[in-house]
Amino acid sequence: EAARTAAVDLNVDRYCEALGVSKVSSDQGDKVLAARWSEPWVSVSSIESTNKARVFRKIPKAVVGRVSIHFVPDQKAEDLEAAFRTHTQRVFAARDSGNALKVVVKQTSGWWLGDVKHRIFRLAAKAVEDVWGQEPLMVREGGSYGGVTTFLENVLGAPALHLPMGQSSDNAHLPNERIRMHNLLQGRLVM
Question: What's the pTM value of the predicted model, to 2 decimals?
Answer without folding.
Answer: 0.68
